[in-house]
Design goal:
The protein is α/β, with parallel strands linked by helices. It is built from 15 helices and 24 strands.
């Protein structure tokens, strides 16, 4: 692709060189530069791409795009200056992949909590209606059933456009994206138009060095996302909900407390056979009875948002009912049905005190005969987190099994010291089983129907990291393999 075509729609100043050159790749990491590359200099929290211009030229970069005044060291290389490199990268990426976002319906979900759950619900509903969808978020990207690992909840604009391109070629019609506040602040979604944008809730998070200066900045980044949204679906139960609705052309609301475009009543926990979740009635745009296949009354808000999005996209009521009942989120209150003869086994990513308390208090509300929690502490992480996680687990559990969870370069006994101090605050019985596989198999041996076992900390991860080595490990696989073994 010629430089002039690559830069179409981007305001720039030519500092040196010609625009009549071919570009073979676009990169913002100097380590990936090859002969004929365009190197875009991004300014980040920890690194500045402008410091790697010499390295990029040495590797054969044809085009250097900057946002700062720099010394032109090679007149044969084309240097272009833009106002904002990150914003420019979004348009450049779109040009490079022939505007793939324009061939898709983009749906973005933002908020402090619930983004992953809501996008998975949307995906489940639309797939029930026969639509092939893409999804991008915390646990990676999906093109239909194909999983792709990603670095950030919302990837950089070039990776986004690359994913969109793959989705278009795979026949996807709609993409559900988690939109993080960082993505807005760092212009990762620059130049994208969202047909629908949703807001779940807002509470202080991601505030500190390298993230947001304060809550006001964090909130304003969430709000700014809606400048790029055509129709907003807003949870008005959250105190900041209506504030988020200032910019979109169209507004749809959801609530569990009051009348809205879509609202809920008769909310109840359900736990029967192969489902642990919530039932309720929907009113407004959709009139039906609903059962969600994941636990927690807080998920009703997420389900309302997903249902309203699906309604706007044309899904039938039957597909909405089916999609929400069959919802499956890997590593997020994930019910492993293969373990049901031995009890209700839940896999969840909870790995701090707040998420541990949220999960276990949710499960405690189902009144299990016994609630067991298996977890460990991550090595080379804040020590205070361990104590607080132990205290939260002890407060809600009947029994605790301590085990490994990415000990990294620490010894498990050293990690457990702080956790045990927290556990002892509420005198919950506990034992230590160092090997996580052995610990899970032990719980499969002793657990009974009517009991709930929460395996927390690993979630969707499929590895254990210790002494600088990562080895494959999947809790789901451990359960399925062991149940096959004992069934035989």
């Amino acid at each position: 692709m010629k430089i002039d075509k690559l830069m179409d729609g981007v305001l720039f100043e030519t500092l040196s060189g010609s625009l009549d050159k071919d570009i073979v790749s676009v990169v913002y990491d100097s380590r990936k530069v090859e002969k004929g590359s365009a190197f875009v200099c991004l300014t980040g929290f920890n690194t500045d791409g402008h410091e790697y211009i010499a390295s990029a030229i040495e590797k054969g970069a044809t085009l250097i795009i900057v946002e700062k005044d720099v010394e032109i060291t090679n007149e044969d290389v084309t240097f272009l200056k833009v106002i904002n490199s990150r914003t420019a990268l979004g348009k450049i990426a779109s040009n490079y992949f022939d505007n793939p976002a324009g061939k898709l319906i983009l749906v973005g979900v933002t908020g402090t909590k619930g983004k992953t759950t809501t996008t998975h619900m949307c995906k489940s509903i639309m797939e029930a209606s026969g639509v092939k969808v893409g999804m991008i978020g915390t646990i990676g990207a999906y093109i239909g059933d194909e999983h792709i690992e990603t670095k950030n909840t919302t990837p950089e604009s070039f990776e986004l456009n690359e994913l969109f391109d793959r989705m278009v070629k795979a026949g996807c019609k709609v993409v559900f994206m988690e939109v993080s506040s960082q993505a807005v602040k760092l212009d990762r979604i620059a130049n994208l138009h969202f047909e629908i944008g949703a807001f779940t809730n807002l509470s202080p998070d991601h505030i500190g060095a390298g993230e947001h200066a304060d809550f006001e900045e964090y909130k304003n980044c969430k709000k700014a996302f809606f400048k790029q949204v055509e129709t907003a679906v807003i949870n008005i139960d959250d105190e900041y909900g209506l504030e988020m609705a200032e910019y979109p052309h169209n507004l749809r609301t959801v609530s569990v407390k009051e009348s809205a475009y879509l609202y809920a009543s008769d909310i109840k926990n359900i736990w029967e056979e192969d489902i642990i979740g919530v039932s309720f009635k929907m009113h407004g745009d959709i009139e039906t009875d609903i059962a969600i296949g994941i636990p927690g009354i807080h998920n009703v808000d997420n389900a309302l948002i997903a249902a309203e999005i699906a309604y706007i996209l044309g899904a039938s009521v039957d597909d909405i009912v089916k999609g929400l009942k069959n919802i499956h989120i890997k590593g997020r209150t994930q019910l492993v049905k293969e373990a049901l003869p031995k009890g209700t086994f839940i896999i969840d990513y909870a790995h701090n005190a707040i998420s541990t308390e949220s999960l276990l208090s949710t499960l405690r509300a189902y009144n299990p005969a016994k609630l067991t929690c298996l977890f460990g502490g991550g090595g080379n992480k804040p020590v205070a987190r361990r104590h607080d996680m132990g205290e939260a687990a002890s407060r809600f559990s009947d029994y605790i099994v301590l085990t490994e969870d990415n000990p990294r370069f620490e010894e498990i006994d050293d990690i457990n010291k702080s956790i045990i101090e927290g556990i002892k605050e509420h005198d919950c019985p506990y034992e230590v089983i160092y090997d996580r596989k052995e610990a899970i198999e032990h719980l499969l041996d002793i657990s009974k129907p009517g009991e709930i076992v929460a395996l927390i900390g690993k979630g969707h991860e499929t590895y254990q990291e210790a002494k600088g080595v990562k080895r494959h490990f999947s809790e789901e696989e451990v359960i399925k393999d062991y149940m096959k073994k004992i069934t035989k």
